[in-house]
Amino acid sequence: MTKNRPNSKRAVEPRDERYRDSIVTVPNVICFIRLLGSFMLLGFAFVGWRYWFVGLFLSLSLSDWIDGKLARWLHQRSDFGARLDSTADAVLYVGLLGGMIMLCWDSIQHEWIWLAVGLGSYAVTTGAGLWKYGRVPSYHTYGAKFTQWLALIAGVCFVLDWAVWPLRLTMISVTLTNLEATLITCVLKEWQADVLTLFHVWPNRAPNQKIQ
User: Fold this and answer.
1) Other CB atoms within 10 A of residue 23 CB
2) For residues 212 and 209, what is the distance between their CA atoms, to the nearest angstrom?
3) Residue 206 within a domain
């Protein structure tokens, strides 16, 4: 029986056909800005501008939320945009990690095992996507979205030397999110973007159902 299952039409976010293959859209422009701004993070960290670093990181992190909202409101969701968003996010967190190393080297040496587990889980899910589909996963699950907010808090707290426990909590969330993403890759036969949860694409559900 299937009547008690959550609506599987909410399993995967749709593409907006008019913009499915578009490169120049409002959300994509914001993603490009975030991508370029992430390199500026390293520059601020290199010269020791801690508060400029935090301010830019907050702005770039919030831009990720903004471009997602605009993509929905303007009906400009696309496969390219999903991949670009994932790339921009990855580069942003590389910039954050690089900045933390430059600004907080003494503190980060005590947290290496937490970082290693989180980064290792990301390497596993990325490798699984490349092996199966020849491209990096761009699922943007609910877990990933929640983890991004945790990372924002953790980055600010760590760089400003307020607390380290948000970083540890974030690494736990990163690991669980990447575990879900890896399982999604194992389940899906073909690459697709914006899969909201593992449960909605589990094999015992009706196949190929998406948000209408």
Assistant:
1) 12
2) 9
3) no
The values of phi and psi at residue 141, to 5°, are -70, 165
Average pLDDT over residues 70-75: 82
Point out which residues pair with 12 in neighbouring strands.
Answer: 195
Distances from the Cα of 63 to the Cα of 33, 101, 208, angstroms? 9, 24, 31
212 within a domain of the structure (yes/no): no
Q: What is the mean pLDDT of residues 170-189?
A: 95
Question: Dmax over Cα atoms in the chain, in whole Å?
Answer: 62
- Number of domain units in the chain: 1
Q: Is residue 185 part of a domain?
A: yes
Q: Which domain holds residue 144?
A: 8-201
Quickly state the pLDDT bin for 202 (edges 50, 70, 90).
Answer: confident
Least confident of 15-24, 87-96, 162-171, 186-195: 15-24
What's the half-sphere exposure (Cβ side, CA atoms, 13 Å) at 63? Answer: 24
Residue-by-residue DSSP string for 175-197? HHHHHHHHHHHHH-SS--S-B--
The CATH number that applies at residue 183 is: 1.20.120
Say if residues 25 and 209 touch (Cβ distance below 8 Å): no
- CA atoms within 13 A of residue 89's CA, in its CB half-sphere: 24
- Asked if the structure places residue 108 within a domain, the reply is yes
CA dihedral sign, ordered 97, 115, 89, 63:
negative
Of 89, 54, 94, the closest CA to residue 68 belongs to 89
